[in-house]
Automatic annotation (TrEMBL):
Catalytic activity: N-(5-phospho-beta-D-ribosyl)anthranilate = 1-(2-carboxyphenylamino)-1-deoxy-D-ribulose 5-phosphate
Occurrences of domain N-(5'phosphoribosyl) anthranilate isomerase (PRAI) (ranges): 5-206
InterPro entries associated with the record: Aldolase_TIM, PRAI_dom, RibuloseP-bd_barrel, TrpF_fam
HAMAP family for the chain: PRAI
Family per record: Belongs to the TrpF family.
Assigned keywords, A-Z: Amino-acid biosynthesis, Aromatic amino acid biosynthesis, Isomerase, Tryptophan biosynthesis
Superkingdom: Bacteria
GN (gene name): trpF
Entry's EC annotation: 5.3.1.24
Protein name: N-(5'-phosphoribosyl)anthranilate isomerase
Annotated metabolic or biological route of this protein: Amino-acid biosynthesis; L-tryptophan biosynthesis; L-tryptophan from chorismate: step 3/5
EC class: isomerase
Natural source organism: Reyranella aquatilis
Record has Isomerase as a keyword: yes
């Protein structure tokens, strides 16, 4: 089984290089000022994106962002795909896809099984990918909290999808076994302290995924 790994919340050249070298299929850059992973500078975003080979997808994460903010970030050339992690409606997803020409991944917050049903019904027709993430936490994501993975056991999701929320090098194999996830995303689980990515943990996470 080939499982794709995305390392999210990267903000230094060294950790971007580590994720790419380890074999991550996607890397994520956060634009959300309340996040400890927020990449504020457009110059830094441009420089980080420029380090990534074209074989790796560069994902720009946004939370209920205005068009002008998204456009400024896209203008750096550092983003191949949008990840929408707020309360964006299906209409907003469709409008952003049409306006930017970029593929869009929509995050669905999961606490109970009906959240998955509702997320698929609302977004599978408009988003290129879905991401199922935990609903708990002080931020809209990146909280190191997992949801009950049995909610996804045996589910058919009609578009490519990611499992996220509380994943670590130690639990990702079990998470994939229980959910059947074809792709996984991690932020806190590869950090030595909040917002500080660890090269060792990035290697361990992608290594664990690559053995599946
Ligand atoms: O990472 C963040 O700071 C963040 C902020 C706002 C919305 C989403 C965010 N991250 C996403 O959340 C998932 C799960 O994070 P974690 O592994 O549980 O820390 C992460 O994969 C990002 O896609």
């Amino acid at each position: 089984m080939t499982v794709e790994a995305k390392i999210c919340g990267l903000s230094t050249p060294e950790t971007v290089d580590a994720a790419v070298a380890a074999g991550a299929g996607l890397v994520g850059f956060v634009t959300f000022p309340r996040s400890p992973r927020h990449v504020e500078s457009l110059d830094l975003l441009k420089a980080l994106g420029a380090r990534v080979p074209s074989s790796v997808i560069r994902v720009g994460l946004f939370v209920d962002a205005a068009d002008a903010l998204i456009d400024a970030r896209l203008g750096t050339g550092a983003i191949d795909m949008l990840q929408l992690h707020g309360a964006e409606t299906p209409e907003r997803v469709a409008a952003l896809k049409a306006r930017t020409g970029k593929p869009v991944m929509k995050a669905i917050k999961v606490a109970v099984p009906a959240d998955v049903d509702r997320g698929i019904a609302a977004y599978a027709g408009v988003a290129d990918r879905l991401m199922f993430d935990a609903a708990d936490g002080t931020l809209p994501g990146g909280n190191a909290t997992a949801f009950d993975w049995t909610i996804l056991s045996g589910r058919t999701v009609p578009v490519p999808w990611f499992l996220a929320g509380g994943l670590t090098p130690a639990n990702v194999a079990e998470a994939v076994r229980m959910t059947g996830a074809p792709a996984v995303d991690v932020s806190s689980g590869v950090e030595s302290s909040r917002g500080v990515k660890s090269i060792e943990l990035i290697r361990a996470f992608v290594g664990a995924v690559n053995t599946l």
